User: Which sequence fits this backbone?
């Protein structure tokens, strides 16, 4: 038996779909006021449930993402002397561990920031032209070149670390310049793992790029370089920002590659923490981790104020599909 | 004002120059300009060495730098660098000795220049390495929880396989520092041996473990949160749990009729590629000396190789309670000889039996 549904408007807004009759020739039974009220209540209840479910999901997602950070921050304020363990919530609140952070960790932090900044900047300088070439050129073997640019993502970082170490020894034996165990060696390794992120995001933007924008600029007399600078670059900029941000994060957090290229005086922050944790647990690690979390938070707020995180993360920007 | 600044600058420069001239003369100068690089763990291990050996070496005109990382990571670096190590001295685990024996990376130690060998047991050194520390692998248990549950103190690994302890145990993962020694001991205790570890795997499955720890420090936290009532872990971690205020006690497990307790040990090796051989010998000798061994034992809970330090530890009430200090007791403890062990096969079997089930 098929039904005929109608939508009835009530004073409270759009009412739910209510079954009011049949297609069998039997006259529809007029809907009573009570029925209409019940339907509206059901609809409102459903809306309320949807609303709260949505919020519960959002809150759960936030808790899942941030609970580890909250535990780290909370536990860093737990005192308890030399033999303290991770206690959350803190049982004897104290800031003693903030005064126990080894100087070496701050030095490592400085090195990691410098490396990550250099790696993301270099990845942009190499990655943007590479992406342009991959999307717009008619090079033979373009697909193969694309695979080469993506390969750092496919090779486990630990393998890359060993490969770089051996390569540096090989180059050193030939030229007398050994890059391992210094800033240059670390920088080369980090740039290597950072490039695919910039190439990936910029390629994604370029593939959706509206070429008519460039054609318009060129037809109005702009030079190719001016067109690139004033039209292409602003459109692909969100992709560049996003790629640089990912590159920074990957470089800053890297352990498996860096562990092979570090040496005394050139130990990155994650390797410093990893090495300390391999032997035992020192709560000052929680304190320095908290400082890094807070620093990142401040950076995010500044970026949001100055550039806008939306602009950073909205890959594709204003480019529209053809 | 300008004159004053110039005068001050001049005075500071003269003082600095005088200090620069006098300082080397004040030092012994035996290792002037030598930078010795040591591959070892970070954390409290490095801190203990920094408090004892670094000042002594600096007084001789040299400098010590640390390449921090686990012996496994440093061995990987060594292989990748084809033996040209970025360090002079390296900590090696007992389980790595067969791998090192296949390589040509270690220099022979001139034992005549390591006089502190008079204070360490004969088994602990030879020309290829010097035992630097020992851990006593134990069952660490929460005495209050055991009392509440009406369970008596365990004496064997099998004693942990009771329903009341299901999901309340933490034991080392095979890839962790203590994993191989404890797995071998459990296998012996269950009736197997180094060639047949299946009985050990069966016993581990019977234990119904909550967590296979990758770092011993995790167990201290787990005792604190009440998640576990017992752990298989080296005594040093139980010492730390005790000093953190948890009611724990160690047991040196009976392993059939062959041993009571298990030991794991580390060794110092001098790299063949080292250009600082004499300084490396100095380091090895001082490492097994009283001061450094005492600092290591009291800071990290490891058992010293220096027998004079072992006797001294009896003065510490917690260490006395947790470690076996009597030579008659330590002499009964099992040390694994990994020469005939196929560790890759162990890991494979572990992965199939424990990880995938």
Assistant:
């Amino acid at each position: 038996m098929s039904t005929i549904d109608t939508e009835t408007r009530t004073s409270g807004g759009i009412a739910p779909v209510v079954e009011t009759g049949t297609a069998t020739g039997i006259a529809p039974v007029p809907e009573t006021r009570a029925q209409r009220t019940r339907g509206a209540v059901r609809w409102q209840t459903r809306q309320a449930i949807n609303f709260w479910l949505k919020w519960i999901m959002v809150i759960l997602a936030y808790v899942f993402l941030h609970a580890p950070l909250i535990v780290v921050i909370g536990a860093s304020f737990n005192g308890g002397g030399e033999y303290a363990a991770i206690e959350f919530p803190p049982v004897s609140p104290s800031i003693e561990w903030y005064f126990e952070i080894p100087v070496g960790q701050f030095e490592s932090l400085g090195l990691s920031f410098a490396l990550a900044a250099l790696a993301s900047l270099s990845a942009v300088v190499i990655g943007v032209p590479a992406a342009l070439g991959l999307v717009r050129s008619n090079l033979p073997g373009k697909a193969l070149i694309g695979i080469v640019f993506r390969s750092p993502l496919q090779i486990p970082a630990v393998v890359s670390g060993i490969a770089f170490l051996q390569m540096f020894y090989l180059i050193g034996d030939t030229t007398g310049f050994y890059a391992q165990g210094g800033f240059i060696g670390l920088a080369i390794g980090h740039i290597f793992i950072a490039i695919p992120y910039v190439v990936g995001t910029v390629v994604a933007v370029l593939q959706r790029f509206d070429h008519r924008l460039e054609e318009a600029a060129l037809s109005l007399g702009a030079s190719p370089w001016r067109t690139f600078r004033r039209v292409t670059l602003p459109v692909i900029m969100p992709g560049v920002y996003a790629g640089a941000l990912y590159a920074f994060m990957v470089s800053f957090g890297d352990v498996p590659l860096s562990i092979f290229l570090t040496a005394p005086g050139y130990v990155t922050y994650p390797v410093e923490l990893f090495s300390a944790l391999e032997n035992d647990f020192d709560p000052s690690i929680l304190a320095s981790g908290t400082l890094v979390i807070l620093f990142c938070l401040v950076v995010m707020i500044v970026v949001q104020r100055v550039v806008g995180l939306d602009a950073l993360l909205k890959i594709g920007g204003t480019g529209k599909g053809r | 004002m300008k004159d004053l600044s110039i005068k001050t600058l001049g005075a500071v420069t003269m003082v600095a120059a005088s200090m620069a001239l006098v300082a080397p003369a004040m030092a012994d100068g035996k290792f002037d300009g030598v930078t010795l690089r040591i591959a070892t763990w970070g954390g409290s291990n490095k801190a203990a060495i920094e408090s004892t050996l670094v000042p002594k070496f600096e007084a001789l005109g040299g400098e010590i730098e640390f390449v921090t990382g686990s012996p496994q990571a440093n061995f990987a670096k060594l292989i990748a660098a084809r033996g040209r190590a970025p360090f002079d001295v390296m900590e090696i685990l007992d389980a790595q000795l067969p791998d090192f024996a296949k390589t040509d990376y270690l220099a022979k130690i001139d034992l005549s220049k390591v006089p502190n060998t008079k204070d360490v047991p004969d088994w602990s050194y030879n020309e290829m390495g010097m035992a630097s520390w020992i851990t006593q692998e134990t069952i660490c248990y929460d005495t209050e929880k055991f009392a509440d549950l009406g369970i008596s103190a365990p004496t064997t690994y099998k004693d942990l396989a009771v329903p009341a302890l299901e999901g309340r145990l933490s034991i080392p993962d095979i890839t962790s520092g203590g994993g191989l020694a404890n797995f071998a001991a459990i296998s012996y205790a269950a009736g197997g041996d180094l060639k047949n570890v299946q009985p050990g795997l069966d016993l581990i499955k019977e234990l119904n473990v909550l967590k296979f720890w990758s770092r011993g420090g995790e167990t201290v936290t787990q005792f604190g949160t009440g998640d576990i009532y017992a752990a298989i872990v080296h005594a040093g971690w139980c010492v730390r749990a005790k000093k953190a205020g948890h009611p724990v006690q160690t047991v040196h497990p009976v392993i059939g009729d062959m041993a009571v307790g298990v030991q794991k040990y580390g060794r110092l090796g001098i790299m063949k590629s080292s250009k600082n051989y004499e300084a490396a010998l100095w380091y090895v000798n001082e490492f097994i000396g009283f001061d450094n061994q005492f600092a290591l034992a009291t800071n990290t809970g490891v058992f010293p190789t220096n027998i004079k330090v072992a006797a001294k530890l009896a003065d510490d009430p917690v260490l006395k309670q947790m470690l076996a200090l009597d030579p008659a007791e330590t002499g009964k403890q099992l040390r694994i000889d990994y020469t005939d062990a196929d560790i890759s096969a162990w890991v494979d079997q572990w992965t199939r039996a424990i990880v995938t089930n």
